[in-house]
Predict the 3D structure of the following.
Amino acid sequence: MQADLHITSLANARVKDAIRLRQRSHRDELGLMLAESYRDILRAVENGWRPRAVFYSEPLFLKNENEGALLAKCRDAGAELLSCAPNVFEKMAYRERPDGLLAVGPQIRHELAGLKLSPNALVVVAEAVEKPGNLGTLLRSADGAGAEAVIVCDRCTDICNPNVVRASTGMVFAIPVVEAGRDEVLAFLRARSFKMLAATPHAEVNHWDADMRGATAILVGAEQYGLTDFWMDAATQRVKIPMLGRADSLNVATAATILLFEAVRQRRMT
């Protein structure tokens, strides 16, 4: 694949601009985000994301012979291809073991009103999840369970954070992720007759005893404090995941995963 530009200097302006995109303020100012690695970029492009530029370094490729085809897909989508010396690429990379591919493209944005959900949709409402890795893992699980959307309320983490992209294994591009205020989200769910299951260790009902068939929203909260009273009061049912050891709660992404796949189990039995 013929590059549009070959970069050998760490002082190159394009390199510096890409590094700045690790900062949320710079991402938001330019409306851009990063995706790194063959897998994440491929999933992004396959789901309609159109990168503006792809930095690559052939000596760092994993040698699966598919990188050239991916670069061709990116060029067909309108991306500029920028070949880099390995030390230049490693300066830009945010992964510990880069595979020589880093894309820059528009931030992903979905509106609540634009969600097209089936009558029996399964969705996740995540309130104030602080850690990018947890949000990314939650997105990966939501996609795996066939959830139709993840709705983020009172965000603490930018969904376009590179670590969200990485932890989601690119699924942030595949499943609609919406950011909206809690009042708007609650009205949206009630208007569509969603059951709302609030995850809390203080509930009396085990999660497998709750009916997760039909339109269902799984509500999960911040790692440290859980769901706020707003969502606890709004929930149609509170459920707990039994804890048999010394820990009194689970990581938010782990809890969401358990609830999502219980919903899968119930739906497959009907």
Q: What stands out?
A: DSSP finds ten helices and twelve strands in the chain. The first strand starts at residue 5 and ends at 7. The chain has a mean pLDDT of 95.
